[in-house]
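Here is one chain, start to finish.
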Amino acid sequence: MYRMTKDQEGAPGAKPRRNVTSDLLGANTEIGRKLKQYYDELVSDDVPDRFAQLLSQLEKAAPAQKKD
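Its structure:
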């Protein structure tokens, strides 16, 4: 791979160096960031009482179904 030296960077016809730290995914990075933020908020929410009760009932019913 060819790299320009400091002297060649401003040379006529020379291609500008690409910023290595630039974001290669562009808009996809913003979408990913928003999805992660949404997921983190969703996971941190408390489970509603009614849902927890239903889960508890299902757990109690599961061993009874295995015996049948």
